[in-house]
Amino acid sequence: MAASRIEHVLQRTFIDFRQTAEFLKNPLVLDKAQGLYYYDINQKRYFDAIGGVFVVGLGHGNERIHQAMKQQLDKLTFVPPQHAVSNITIDFIEKLGKIAPANLQFVKPFSGGSEAVESALKFVRQYHRQTGNPGKFKILSRYHAYHGSTFGGMAASGTGPRKSKFGPHVPGFIHVFGPTHYRDRFSWEEANLFSAQAMEDVIVAEDPDTVAAIIVEPIGNGGGIITPTREYFVRIREICDRYNVSLIFDEVITGFGKTGHMFAAQAYDVTPDLITAGKAMSNGVMPMGAMFARTDMADAFVGQVEAGVHFSHGHTFAGNPLASAVGLVCMIISGGWCCCCLFGY
C-alpha cells in the first residue's frame, strides 16, 4: 500500500531534471538524516558524500543551528520586505559584509542561489544604465556553466540540453568556451590564457559599449569539477577593468568554506565586482541565497524618490528573519570563524 501511494503521488509532481518513470524504478524516499547520513523510509542508511547537493556542509541535525532557529520562531518569522526589515536580518547583512572579500559589503539576502544570480544580472544592467552607459546590457558566460533555472540564469548557463526546450531564451547572453575546451591543444596554463583572451576578443567583437558583465563559476561544476588557474582570473579581471565590464563570480556552490576560504575569490586572490551565493549558507535548513556587490556600485542606486534609481527588484522571502537567524549561526560554525570575529567581541 505504501509503495503504491508513493508512486501515485510522485506521478503527480516532478523530480528535478529527471524522468519520473525512471525514478520510480528505484525511488529514493528519505525519512530522516543525522550527521553525515541519510535514512530512507526503510531505515537504510546512506553516506551523504556531497552534502545533499553541495549544501549541508555542517552535517545534518546540527543542534546549534536548530536552537537558533527555534529561538527565532518564538520572536518573528516574517516581515513584508517592501515595508520593513527585521532586526535579525540587519545583523545578518552586517556579518555577511564582514566576511565578504575586499569592498563587496553591499549585501542583499535572497531565498536561493537562482534568485541571487537573477538579481545580479539585473543589478549590473541597471547599474550601467544609471552610470552613463545605457547601451551596456550583454552578459558573457561560458559553455558548460550552470547559473540557475530562472530565465536569466538559464540564459547565462551553457548547458544546452537543459535549456533547449525553453527557447527562445532571454536575449543579450553570449557564450564562450572555458579552458577545458582547449586542453587537448595546449598545456593547461596555455589553455587558460587562451580562454581568457577569447573573452576579450568577444568583447571587442561585440563592441565593449554593449557588454555589461562576465559571469563565471570560480570552480566549474557542469562538465566536471574544473579549477582554472589563478592567472586565468587575473586576466579576466584585467579585461573587465579595461572595458568597464562588471565581473560576477557565481559562488552558489563554492562559497562558504568549500575552498578553505569563505569564498573562492579569496582562494584565487582575485576580487570580482559581485558575488552570488546560496546552498551552504544555511546548511540546507532554510532556503537562502545572497548577492554581494561593491559598495561604490550600490551608490548608483541612491537618490531622490522622483529619480527612480532604486533597485527595481525584490522577492517575498528575501531576508526572511527565520532564514537570517539560521544564516548567522552557520557563519559562526563554518570556516573557522569565531563569535569574536563576527560580532566584534
Any overview of this molecule?
The chain is built from 14 helices and 10 strands. A 7-stranded mixed β-sheet has the order 4-10-9-8-7-5-6, sandwiched between helices. It starts with a helix and ends with a helix. The protein has helices at 2-10, 20-23, 51-54, 63-73, 87-99, 113-129, 151-156, 160-163, 188-206, 230-243, 264-268, 295-298, 321-333, 339-343; strands spanning 30-34, 37-40, 45-47, 106-110, 138-142, 173-176, 211-216, 246-250, 274-277, 289-293. It folds into 2 domains: 2-49, no CATH class; 63-343, Type I PLP-dependent aspartate aminotransferase-like (Major domain) (Aspartate Aminotransferase, domain 2). Strand 7 (211-216), helix 10 (230-243) and strand 8 (246-250) form a beta-alpha-beta unit. Helices cover 37% and strands 13% of the residues. The chain has 345 residues and is an alpha/beta fold.
